[in-house]
């Protein structure tokens, strides 16, 4: 029942954040072997789950913060905290259901993509 409510809430949030979809920026060249695939997957997941509120370039929209260029470790830690239900800030109610739809691997991929943006 909880999962159904969380998914429903997340879908409503996503619908409310829908905007015109601008092309997502390409990441800088990956520093680690194998990270190109992670960055590509993270870019796709970001476009589906995050760009509506944080913007196509992750530069933030209105009261949604800029994510581009933040460290991978910080982004992954915050997403992991949201996935666990921990309140991290005033947007926790919005982020918790969305983050819970991501797997641990997807969290890492999204964090890697966002950290690669400059």
Order of helices and strands: HHHHHH
Question: What is the number of E strands?
Answer: 0
Say what the CATH topology is.
Answer: Cytochrome Bc1 Complex, Chain D, domain 2
Distance, first to last CA: 41 Å
Number of helices: 6
How many whole angstroms does the radius of gyration measure? 14 Å
Can you lay out the helices and strands and say which pair or pack?
Blueprint: H1 2-16, H2 35-49, H3 51-54, H4 72-83, H5 92-99, H6 104-116
Question: Could you characterize what this model shows?
Answer:
This protein has 118 residues and is mainly alpha-helical. It has one domain: Cytochrome c-like domain (Cytochrome Bc1 Complex, Chain D, domain 2, Orthogonal Bundle), CATH 1.10.760. The chain is built from six helices and no strands. Helix 1 (2-16) packs across helix 5 (92-99). The termini are far apart.
In short:
This protein has six helices and no strands. It is mainly α and 118 residues long. 28% of the residues are buried.
């Amino acid at each position: 029942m909880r999962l159904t409510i969380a998914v429903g809430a997340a879908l409503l949030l996503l619908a409310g954040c829908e905007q015109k979809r601008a092309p997502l920026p390409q990441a800088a060249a990956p520093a680690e072997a194998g990270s190109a695939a992670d960055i590509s997957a993270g870019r796709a997941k970001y476009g589906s789950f995050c760009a509506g509120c944080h913007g196509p370039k992750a530069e933030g929209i209105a009261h949604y913060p800029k994510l581009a260029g933040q460290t991978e470790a910080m982004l992954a830690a915050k997403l992991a905290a949201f996935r666990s239900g921990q309140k991290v800030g005033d947007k926790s109610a919005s982020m918790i259901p969305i983050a819970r739809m991501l797997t641990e691997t997807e969290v890492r991929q999204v964090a890697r993509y966002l950290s690669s943006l400059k």
